[in-house]
Amino acid sequence: MRIGQIVPSSNTTMETEIPAILRGRERTLPGEQFTFHSSRMRMKKVIKEELAAMDRDSLRCAAELADAEVDVVGYACLVAIMSMGLGYHRTSQDALHARMKEEGHAAPVVTSAGALVDELKLAGIRSISIVTPYMPALTDLVVDYIKDQGIDVIDSIALAIPDNLEVGRRDPMALVNDVDRLNTRGADLVVVSACVQMPSREAIPVVEDKLGLPVTSAAACTTRSMLRALGLDPVAPDAGFILSEAAKAAAAASSEDIQG
Predict the structure, then answer these.
(1) How distant, in Å, are the alpha carbons of 16, 18, 188, 236 from that of 130?
(2) Which tens digits make up the pLDDT trace of 202-255?
(3) Residues known to be catalytic
(4) Complete DSSP assignment for 20-31
(5) What is the pTM of this model?
(6) Distance between CA atoms of 76 and 57, rounded to whole angstroms?
(7) Helices (DSSP H) in the chain: which residue ranges?
(8) In angstroms, rounded to a whole number, what is the distance separating the alpha carbons of residues 97 and 248?
(9) CA distances to 116, 118, 149, 213, 253 from 16, in Å
(10) Which of 8, 25, 89, 179 has a CA-to-CA distance to 48 between 20 and 30 Å?
(11) How far, CA to CA in Å, does 222 sit from each of 19, 48, 131, 216, 217?
């Protein structure tokens, strides 16, 4: 299966974390095999002006990935979507899917912003605390976006790192100490990286053990949305709650409650 990603030009994480998660899945399901294909949008500083300019370039990326006939596309920049207005992930997904259809290959499209809120809601998560690398104003924007989607945000930490390359170079295990400053009282889950550029995969199980709470990241949620779009069981080993059997069971129970 061909995994397509639309990524900022300075992103160095999604092309490592998503493959690492899915390679772990391949080891448990030897019949599956994934390949990874990306198209890039120019962005160096995580500021609203660059994010908006970058987002306008996403349709070109969708056309390029249609040429590769990928099986699913993930738009891998959470804050770019959220900075464009409340609920914009649906607008973006529809536009990117339409562009791929125009190019003759209408693969399903997910966004990291949509994946974060959708996968949490599917798993019955109603309140979270989050860590972001963004400046405080952008972090507030992310919090407002998530709240608008019906998920309460108990607390947030803004690490205030404007340079996207610096975010990608951050030691993921620093998050183990970062969460000491995070209020998790009343939170159903902790999003230890509400950013697809801030590395977190190795820290997720450690933070889960430390806090005694479910923990996930924007990258893990994006992976789950991709698997669901492919019609595959949305689980992977060592990737935290959202890709666990427990999350799958919670989603099934939530679906039964809605249908009932």
Answers:
(1) 22, 20, 11, 22
(2) 999 999 999 999 999 999 999 999 999 999 999 999 999 999 999 989 888 866
(3) 77, 195
(4) HHHHHHHHHSTT
(5) 0.93
(6) 13
(7) 14-28, 48-56, 58-67, 78-82, 88-102, 112-122, 136-148, 164-168, 175-178, 203-211, 218-229, 245-259
(8) 26
(9) 19, 23, 28, 25, 32
(10) 179
(11) 12, 22, 17, 11, 9
Percentage of the chain beyond pLDDT 70 is: 95
Per-residue tokens: 212: 């005694």
How many other CB atoms sit within 10 Å of the CB of residue 212?
A: 7
Residue 8 sits at φ, ψ, to 5 deg, of: -60, 150
Contacts of 237 (CB under 8 A, 6+ apart): 24, 25, 27, 28
For residue 180, the number of C-alpha atoms closer than 13 Å in the C-beta half-sphere is 5
DSSP code of 91? H
Mean pLDDT of 23-34: 94
Pairing of strands 215-217, 189-193: parallel
